[in-house]
Write a structure and sequence with these properties.
Layout lengths: L18 H9 L7 H12 L4 E10 L2 E9 L9 E6 L6 H13 L9 E5 L4 H6 L21 H11 L5 E9 L3 H14 L13 E5 L5 H11 L13 E2 L2 E2 L5 E4 L1 H4 L10 E7 L8 H25 L9
Parallel strand pairs: 3-4, 3-5, 5-10, 6-9
Antiparallel strand pairs: 1-2, 2-4, 6-10, 7-8
Helix pairs in contact: 2-3, 3-9, 7-9
Protein name: Peptidase
Family: Belongs to the peptidase M14 family.
Keywords: Hydrolase, Metal-binding, Zinc
Length: 318
């Protein structure tokens, strides 16, 4: 759990960034890992069991990044769709690796019951640079709206819009890290010309539900599954997690559509954002990935059980 007070070395305090500041920020970004080795190679191995689709392509300078989705091979119109997204913030590693691990180890357990659509690394440029933003200093997870400026988000929205079948569930895999407080929130304040107000990183796993359409029983089913793997973030002395009132143990609520968050893309009945805490001395990368997989499995199990017992199995369309 981290708290920090930070200034940012780019720009003038109180003045939003212009082109010069964005260019300076971009010049400081360094490639630390390989999207091709870590993600594309894994997806290639999955082609023997799943359909693979390139749904977009990003070009940032000399870098070209194909955007890839994994789909059930036995896709049928009479089955609901489960949408799994990871790596919307590229630095949140278990979101990417957890999505891939689910496909490799668990996805075939759901064959014949749902249509799976998995976009495991929505922001590959940011994945390689272990960053929150894309190359234009834009947060893709504030850009899932018609006027959004992130190509990563627009491509994923187009993919989801092309799905004719009803979407039952969307689970978006994230992390909350200590660097949120030491790097990314200070950078955001500097970029927007606002003062940085230090906060506190929650110690443990939590979920983000939709303020406008909450599903408390669904969220708690995931919490109960994940706490077998890792610890759940407690509310602070103000009854809050990351500055938001705890709606239940390990759950907060955001207005998804208003903020342009990834889980606002559909009208799926069941939607959630996972938040793993990888900086705890009580976890390992393997445990973080396992927590993401446990959340995905619990989400699908709950959604299917409710879907099968609801009248006519009705599901809102995307």
């Amino acid at each position: 759990m981290s708290t920090a007070s930070a200034s940012y070395p780019i720009g003038t305090p109180g003045t939003p960034w212009g082109n010069a500041e964005r260019a300076e920020w971009l010049s400081r970004q360094t490639r630390h890992r390989s999207y091709e080795s870590d993600v594309l190679s894994v997806i290639e191995r999955l082609r023997s069991r799943f359909d693979v689709q390139e749904y977009g392509r990003l070009e940032y300078g000399p870098g070209v990044y194909p955007l890839m989705a994994i789909r059930s091979r036995d896709w049928r119109a009479d089955r609901p769709v489960v949408l799994i997204t990871g790596g919307v913030h590229g630095y949140e590693t278990s979101g990417v690796q957890g999505a891939l691990q689910f496909v490799e180890q668990q996805a075939l357990d759901y064959a014949g019951r749902v249509n799976l659509l998995v976009a495991p690394c929505v922001s590959p440029w940011a994945y390689e640079r272990i960053h929150r933003w894309n190359a234009n200093a834009i947060d893709p997870n504030r850009s899932f709206r018609d006027d959004g400026q992130a190509g990563e988000s627009a491509a994923l929205m187009q993919l989801v819009a092309s799905i004719a079948e009803p979407i039952l569930l969307h689970i978006d895999l994230h992390e909350t890290t200590d660097t949120d407080e030491t790097e990314f929130r200070p950078a955001l304040a500097a970029r927007d010309g606002k003062p940085f107000e230090p906060g506190e990183i929650p110690d443990g796993f939590y979920l983000v539900d939709d303020t406008e359409s909450p599903q408390p029983e669904f969220q708690q089913a995931l919490i109960e599954a994940v706490e077998k793997i890792t610890h759940i973030a407690p509310a602070d002395d103000n009854g809050e997690i990351l500055g938001s009132p705890a709606a239940a143990r390990g759950v907060i609520q955001y207005p998804l559509a208003q903020l342009g968050l990834c889980t606002s893309m559909t009208n799926a009945r069941y939607r959630t954002t996972t938040e793993v805490y990888p900086d705890s001395d009580r976890v390992t990368p393997e445990l973080c990935n396992a927590a993401q997989v446990a959340a995905v499995c619990a989400a699908i199990d709950y959604a299917l059980s409710e879907h099968l017992t609801s009248p006519h199995g009705a599901v809102p369309r995307a």
